[in-house]
Amino acid sequence: MNAIFIITALVILLYFAYPLWLKMMADRATNDGGQRKEIDGVSLVLLSYNGREYLEEKIKMLLEELKEFPRHEMIIVDDFSTDGSRDVLVKFRDMEDITVILKEGHYGIPHTMNLAVSLARYSNLVFCDQRQETSRNILRKLVEPLGQKEIGAVSACISQVDKAGCASVIRRYENYLKSGESMAGSLMGVYGPLYAMKKNCYSPIPGSIILDDLYLSLKVMATNKIIIMQECQIYDEHICDLHDYRRIRRYLTGFMQILSEKSLLAQLPRKQLTMLLWHKYLRLLIPVLLCLCYFTTGIMSLKEPFYLVPFILLTLVGIASLTPAFSRIRSMIIHFARINILYVVAMSDLLFRRPLARFDLQYKADK
Fold it and tell me: What is the pLDDT of residues 150-178, one digit of tens each?
């Protein structure tokens, strides 16, 4: 049973060795340092869906930012909101350089993005969500790097400090990894709430794709670089509030989709494929291994009292992390335990329920 602890420790050490590998890759990465081409126009796409409380202020802020560009437009596509968002958007319909599309059905983000890009007039795209707040003068800083030939997309950075001013160690570490990836040659996935992309690097997104930002990033990095602009700050809700079971299950389903896209992965250079598997997929093993360590500790506590204390402590932390009163506490330990438990439950759901569902459907069809 000690083998479980050893394997878990090795996987965790391997995962945390990733930044060291990025540093080595960054030292080898070359930058042509060529002149930047002047940005000739920007089409900003605002994705709208049931965000009435954010919309008007967000649109006004973006319009002010777009004045930095001589040629610009805003394309707002509402994916059949039901909260009154459409009443807000109607007020902007007759404004110059704004196109408002009110869809007559809820078709999802890929359909919304593909539709907006088909209408875009300019060669530089900016994709923006409605909920998050951003630092000022962000669009000019975000779009300017697209003037370099080798750069296909630029991501803004989700701040480690949330809207309420609370800091997150997890977010800080994720930003550290993304900064290392950017310097090493390409970012493993833009931050979906705000990023810029050359229109000729955009690939239509299949309607079934869940992780649209990761899918597009993989398409771009097959031939171009993706970088992150740390000074372009996005302020979101606290990471504890964003990691619920439904969202985690959605992430895992999206990651499984990406793995099934063999032609997409085959296009990636070896270095980028290594980064994808190391950053995005290796860490998915950690919750499973930690869960095995927990149960192993419980089994061993039946024979050796030494393991009883850590088993009881782990059990109490796990129970606290799933109790609403404790889960609201901004504790890294509580949040770490909660997110790992939710990942294990979601993985079990996806691995076992789906095959059973398929078997049940086949059984009913045979009958």
Answer: 999 999 999 999 888 888 888 999 999 99
Which tokens hold the place of 127? 């994709």
Helix (H) or strand (E) holding 11, with range, is helix 2-16
In Å, what is the CA distance from 258 to each residue of 96, 129, 196, 249, 364? 39, 22, 22, 14, 30
How many other CB atoms are there within 10 angstroms of residue 213's CB atom? 21
Contacts of 241 (CB under 8 A, 6+ apart): none
Q: How far is CA 262 from the centre of its chain?
A: 21
Spell out the domain ranges in the chain. 1-18+269-367, 31-241
**Is the pLDDT reported for residue 34 higher than 70?**
no
User: At what angle are helices 169-184 and 18-28 packed, to 10 degrees?
Assistant: 30
Q: Show the tokens assigned to 152.
A: 């296909």
Q: State the pTM of this model.
A: 0.91
Whole-number Å distance between alpha carbons of 16 and 20:
8
In whole angstroms, give the CA distance from residue 220 to residue 203: 8
Residue type at position 308: L
Quickly name the fold that domain 31-241 has.
Spore Coat Polysaccharide Biosynthesis Protein SpsA; Chain A (3.90.550)
- For residue 72, count CB atoms less than 10 angstroms from its CB and return exposed for 0-12, middle for 13-18, buried for 19 or more: buried
pLDDT digits (tens, 9 = 90+) for 198-243: 999 999 999 999 999 999 999 999 999 999 999 999 999 877 777 7
Other Cβ atoms closer than 10 A to 119: 13
* Amino acid identity at 212: D
Choose among 168, 189, 222, 193: nearest CA to 334: 168
Which phi-psi region, left, alpha or beta, contains residue 265 (left: φ > 0; alpha: ψ -120 to 50)? alpha
Per-residue pLDDT tens for 99-125?
A: 999 999 999 999 999 999 999 999 999
Can you point out the beta strands (E) in 206-289?
225-235
Triad 73, 74, 80: Cα angle to 5°: 150
Going by the DSSP 8-state scheme, the letter that residue 147 receives in this structure is G
CB atoms within 10 A of CB 29: 15
